[in-house]
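Task: complex structure prediction.
Instruction: return structure tokens for all chains below.
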Amino acid sequence: MKRWVSIVLAVIVIGFIGTNVYLIFKEDSKVQHTVHVEKWSRVQERDIVETFETDGILVPKEEQDVYLPLENIEFQQFLVEEGDEVAIGTPLFLYTSPEIDSLKETLETEITQVEGEIEGVEDYIDSLEDYQSSIPTTTSEIEVDSILEDGLKIDVHASSEMIESTIEQEIYKQELEKRKLEEQKTKYENQLDNINEQENSASMVSNIDGVVVEVNKNLGNPIITIASNELAIEGEFSEQQLKKAETGMKLTATASGENKKLEGTLDKINPYPVNEPAIDKENAYNFVASILEQPETAPIGTKTTVSVVTAEAIDVPAIRDGAIHGKKTSYVYQLNEDGQIKKKTVEKGLSFDGYTEIVKGSDIGEVTMLSPEKSPQTNTSFVTEMKPKQITKAALKDFTSREVWKYILIGLVER
Amino acid sequence: MLYVLCLITYATSTYFGIGTETYSGNITNYTLSEYESGKLLLLGGKLISSILYPTLFIWFASIFFWIFLEIPYIKVVIVQSFGFAFLLLGQIVTMPVLVLLDLNLVSNPFSFGVLSQYAFEHEYWNSFFGSITLFHLVALMLQYYYLASLSEKNRYVALTLLILFYLISWLLTGLMAFIKIPVLF
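Output:
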């Protein structure tokens, strides 16, 4: 072949390919594309729980100070020592007083009052239980009792499961309250019994289950301090954490030596820093959280890792973060059943741990493209790379013979 | 050797999903393992065709050249094998281009499919022109050169036969790119 012929040929070939490439990539190109999708992700039903973690330590829920009950009192003797375990109603010390009769009366009125309160709580629990059984199992229109709803702070759009769990928690709280009131009643009754037994002397009894931590031998107030057996969690928040935290938030805590995670709620946040505020130092703020179910083995002082739930969305459509694009408006590239890519605008919700809740625009089961390097044209076909690891015998057996032939034919015939 | 190479080429192109557009829609209804297992069936089909096409191209087509050009059959087979090997090379080169540029076979930049999509609306003609690539033209010239020099007949007979052969194969591949199997079911 002569030299100029090969040069001309080369120019023609390069020109041809160049023209093709230009035509493929010019704007509003008429050329069909097929996007080769490497990774995709399905919209799944997930719980998205936004949390942050901090350290905590198990402490007695309360330290109760016991004061001398009357002013005009003749102290007889202590019945407990420091370190003694006491239960509700355990006598703490003996005394006599001319005012014992009036004390008796006070105790009696206290008992009636507590009884009234117990009744009130019982009624409330009953109405909660009634309400709970009236909730339909399906997530349809739920008529929410407006009074209860306000009390429970139930979102109108909440799913029935969420409402149910809120109610359950409320019932649990109320039962706790009831138990406390009953304990109080026992205490008063014990005290009354003690007075009745010994005509002119009375004993002061313990209010809570716990351990005596201090006995004031000088007979000054408070005369005895008891730490409760019931535990709580105490810890510190950093400045950033303080901003996110609010009382009433749920939390979980993992205590060393305790298998089960402790669940609780944030009861108190002290907005005043632990140390004197200083410019060059990070401030820390104390918090106290109550525990719903008491730990079985972990003793006071056990260190725990607390994760505070700042927001949660249960059973919502969620997708991997990489599938969502766009800054001002978010959108995803949906791979639809026609084998085409479609751009869809979505509304983002909570986001945590690599997943984002989709509030609007995409449903569970839909498939979206993950991190395209360049934004694909929409309404074009797509194909996906094989994932050999995902091939299973069971799935192959599930195909009808018609499907089997269809797919073999596609492989055989289609180009 | 050629068969093995062809097998590998077809399998790789299926692995990257080339030519599986009509299957892609199943992604929404199938579970991940169903979707991927179905592709194994596509691959099965591809493997059958990777045996079928070289056979048709090399052994079957050679019969006609042997009859009309009066060249020893084995020599025609060798020429056809070279032609096929060159086309296979073309496919191997095309594969990464399609995957990286997000294109399909109709829009193959080595083919006339791009120009045709600007000229025609009809999909069949686009897939027909899409199946004519530069590699085909070069293979055609190579085969013409050897067959014409081997044959004692008029060289235009060889050219006509070759063009006819390629025309038929383009029409068929065009048809195969055009057909959507799921429509038949």
